[in-house]
Structure formats: structure tokens, C-alpha cells
Write a structure and sequence with these properties.
The mean pLDDT is 88. This protein is of the alpha+beta class. It has three helices and ten strands, in the order H-H-E-E-E-E-E-E-E-E-E-E-H. It is elongated. It has two domains: 57 residues, no CATH class; 132 residues, Immunoglobulin-like. The strands form two sheets. Strands 3-2-1-5-8 form a five-stranded mixed beta sheet, with no helix packed on it. One of its GO terms (biological process) is ATP synthesis coupled electron transport. Keywords: Copper, Electron transport, Magnesium, Membrane, Metal-binding, Mitochondrion, Mitochondrion inner membrane, Respiratory chain, Translocase, Transmembrane, Transmembrane helix, Transport. Belongs to the cytochrome c oxidase subunit 2 family.
Length: 208
């Protein structure tokens, strides 16, 4: 994702440079050409060149979409169920490890929390492990989204969607419901807590 971002950014930078140069040249140019409206070659060029640029963007984009859809023998499977207005989590590889995650009230006494982004129960997952997320919904459309992990999966009633990711560092990753599922869809925060394997095992033991 980062490489594709840099690749696209360089293309955009080149386009902006050329357009800015042409606009500056036109603004400062005092020459007048009465045949300027007739230019078959330039019209062909500015039709073909953007098409070629789009191909250079589309090919790595399609490759990235294909790679992100692959599931690499997941170490852990997490089932996520969207409700109005909270998320439910089920750790399918363990017995009776499930909980609901609600947004922390705004009048909470803990001033270190992020407003409208923190939850009462964090989703604890081990880092340096392939995690498979299975997403569905119990009522209306939702979308389980954590931008910093490059994950955005729609939660559709009666359908299971899946995605995978790998976290290579510990910390907290924040997200929200990204589907307009109702008036309070922005009040469905997601907090993924990345921890080492030993901490995760101790957490699972305490929860179950």
C-alpha cells in the first residue's frame, strides 16, 4: 500500500509540474498565433498520454487488490458482527471468547481517551501474525474500517466478507464504521490493540 501510494504520488507530482509549467508559460507569453485553434497532433497527444498514465496507475492497483484478497494461512480468525450501534467480536479459535465493543461515553472521567474513537473493550490481536477477519452484520449495512491497517470491509446482513492483515508493531489502531448505516454510524468506533504473543495468550486466558 505504501509503495503504491508513493508510485501514484510521483505520477501526480509529474502531472502537476507539467500543468503548472504550461499555465505559467501561457500566462507570461505575449505571442499570438491565429492558427492556435487548429492542432490535430496536440489533441491526439493529450488524449493518448492520459490513457497511458492511467494504465501505469491501474496495473499496480489491480495487482494490489488481488494480493490483498489473498488469505495466507491465518494464525488467528476473528469474527466481527455489526449492530446498531456497536460491534461484536468472536474469537473463533477459542472457546467462549466473545464480547461487545461500545463507544466510551463522552463524559468519561478518563481524560486520556480519544473523543468518539475509544471503546470500552479493545480488540486485542497478536502482532507479526496473519489475522483473518470475517465480517457480517445483524441488522443493516456496516463497514469495519481501520485506515492505518489498510482494512475496509463491508458488513452485510446474511453475507460473510473476509479480509486479512498483519501488524508489525505494537500499539493502538483506531477506526470507525465507514458505511452510512444510520444517524449514529460515526459512533461505532473500532480500537485494535496490537500486542506480543505472550500478552495475547495471557489476555485470552483471562477472558475465557
Amino acid at each position: 500500500l505504501i509503495s503504491f501510494h508513493d508510485h501514484t504520488l510521483m505520477i501526480i507530482l509529474m502531472i502537476l509540474t507539467v500543468v503548472a509549467y504550461m499555465m505559467t508559460t501561457l500566462a507570461l507569453n505575449k505571442n499570438i498565433n491565429r492558427f492556435v485553434l487548429e492542432g490535430q497532433m496536440i489533441e491526439v497527444a493529450w488524449t493518448i498520454v492520459p490513457a497511458i498514465i492511467l494504465i501505469f496507475i491501474a496495473m499496480p492497483s489491480l495487482r494490489l487488490l488481488y494480493l490483498m484478497d489473498e488469505i495466507h494461512e491465518p494464525t488467528l480468525t476473528l469474527k466481527v458482527v455489526g449492530h446498531q450501534w456497536y460491534w461484536s467480536y468472536e474469537y473463533s479459535d477459542f472457546i467462549k471468547v466473545e464480547f461487545d465493543s461500545y463507544m466510551t461515553p463522552q463524559d468519561s472521567e478518563d481524560k486520556s481517551t480519544f473523543r468518539l474513537l475509544d471503546t470500552d473493550n479493545h480488540t486485542v490481536l497478536p502482532m507479526n501474525s496473519f489475522i483473518r477477519i470475517i465480517v457480517t452484520a445483524a441488522d443493516v449495512l456496516h463497514s469495519w474500517t481501520v485506515p492505518s491497517l489498510g482494512v475496509k470491509t463491508d458488513a452485510t446482513p446474511g453475507r460473510l466478507n473476509q479480509c486479512s492483515f498483519l501488524m508489525n508493531r505494537p500499539g493502538l489502531f483506531y477506526g470507525q464504521c465507514s458505511e452510512i448505516c444510520g444517524a449514529n454510524h460515526s459512533f461505532m468506533p473500532i480500537v485494535v490493540e496490537s500486542v506480543n504473543t505472550n500478552t495475547f495468550i495471557n489476555w485470552v486466558s483471562s477472558v475465557s
